[in-house]
Every structure is written in C-alpha cells, then in structure tokens.
Amino acid sequence: MTTTRPTLRDVADAAGVAVSTASRALTRPGRITEDTAARVRAAADALGYTASPSGRALSSGRTGTVALVVPDVTNPFFFGIVRGVQNRLRADGYMHVLVDTEESVPAEERALRMLRASADGVVLAAPRVEDADLARWAREQPIVTINRPVDGDGVVLDTPGGAVQALEHLASLGHRRVAYASGPRTSWSDRHRRVALRPAARRLGVDLVVLGPYAPQREAGAAAADAACGADVTAVLAFNDLLAFGVLDRLTARGVDVPGAMSVVGCDDVFGADLVRPGLTTVAAPLERAGHRAADLLLSRLDRSGSRAGDSRGARGPLPPSVDLLPTHLVVRGTTGPAPV
C-alpha cells in the first residue's frame, strides 16, 4: 500500500485559503495575518506536509539556502561563527552552505558571483575584496558581513578595542617597546587595529613597532618572532591566536623565555589558547554570537524583501543600516609578565 505525499494544494484546501496564501504562510508569514498563518501551519502539521526545496523555490522564488563565505575554513576563529550561523538558520528552516575562499580575493568574488543564482543570501565573514567591490556585490544580492561593514551594515567585533586593552595590559607590566605583528593587507580589522593602537601607544608612552604583514596562520609566526627579536621589543601583540602560536613555537626554538624575556598576546581566544604552555593571553571575541546575529540580520532582510534580488526593499520599505558592534575583552593567562629589567 502506498500513500500520497500531501501537496501544498492539500494544505491550502484544508486551511480554506488559496494556494498562493498557503505558500506565503509557510515561506514569508509576515506578509499575511497571524491567524491565517497559524491556520495554514496547523493544516500542514496535521497533513504531515513538508516543502521540497525545489517546490519552495518555484512557489516563493527562494531556495531555502544561505551561504556562509569565509577566507580560511581551517582557522578556528571561524568555528564559532559557523556554529552561530547554522543554529540561527536552522531555527527558520534554512540550510547553509560553507564556502572557503582560501584568502583569495578572486576566489571570493567568484563565489559571490556563483551564489547569486544558488543562494537566497550570503553571510560574508571577514571579506577580503576592496570596499567599492564589496558595496557593489551587496547591491546585487542580500549580504550581511562580519568584521567588515558595508554601507553602514554588518556585524563587527571590537578587536581594535581589545587590542588597546592588550596594550594597556602590557604597559601596566612595564613594557615600553611593543611589536604589533600585523595581519593580511586585505584585512579591514587589521587596518582598524593599527589605527586604534597608534594613539593608545602615544598615550601610554609605548614605542609601537608594526611588523608584517603576515598570513594569519601558525606557519607565519616564525618570521614574526624573528622580526620581533631583531626589533629589540619586550612584547609581541599578534594579529590572531594562530600567528601567536607560531610566535611561541619560534621563541621556544630560539631559547627565548616566555614571559620572562618576551611577552606574547594573541587575539580571538580560539580553541587551544588555554591549552598551550604557558596559556596564551589573548583578546576574547563572541564569535558564536557574531554568527548568530549576522544570520538574524540576513533573515530579517530576506523576510522584508519581495524577491531574491539584491535590492533589500520590499513591501514595507527600505531596511535601515545596522552595524552591531560586539564587545571583546582581554583574557590574561601565562604568556604575559613584567618587562625584563
């Protein structure tokens, strides 16, 4: 004996509404009254109806898929962001695809081009494209960025503020010559940290030595450590934890005592930061919260948009710009100590 899978028309007939109304109730409920939406959902539940991705795309113009684009999927920084995005999308019945652009601007643009046809929107984490290109892509499809606002919109982790906290911590320990091992040239966050660190260094009476740029990877830490040793500094503030791990590896190989002869600070508080010995002093960022909030902003935009086009204007008018600045804080562990005398 076979059973016929219930259709959207079956749901509409059971709820006493048109098929188009049933479709809106299940895909864009904000466009009909709550009573009607509740009646349609109850009918769908009673019949055991679930929309297929292809059917949903045909009836609503949506695929039910959101892309998360990251520059390096192996970087633990993005693990929390992936989790936050996934949890928020799952709550609204969306699937997400993860795209790794391997720190390549052409790969990032190629992904955005392909995703216009295959995803309803994009969460773009730490984008590497130029500002003008990023603004253009955001006009062509719904995009919410993390750590790189576009046209006054996005989610930003206050790592510049966290870097200043780290510098203040080092100054309180007597460090007067500190290196900042900078990240990629294409990193918006890195540029803003340098902008924040320079006046803070003057205020604190610290000689700030900017080294790099370096790839945000453990393998790049050896070069950063060698440069720091050659710059006669007593502390290194690294762009991220992976770079800081590499700095620690190289200092150990060189026989440099940490923190006795050199203090080291990372950024992000990724998995493993408290497992290295000594534990890494680092700037902690709410990564999962950032992913969740970015997905929430994107879903709100999709809900208000009348189509899958990049124009974020729908029946209720344009969405206002919204930048969420999420605070960071310094976690002091064993890699920082008093400046050597």
Automatic annotation (TrEMBL):
GO molecular function: DNA-binding transcription factor activity; transcription cis-regulatory region binding
Superkingdom: Bacteria
Keywords annotated in UniProt: DNA-binding, Transcription, Transcription regulation
Protein name in UniProt: LacI family transcriptional regulator
Record organism: Cellulomonas biazotea
Domain HTH lacI-type: 6-60
SMART domains found in the cross-reference section: HTH_LACI
Protease among keywords: no
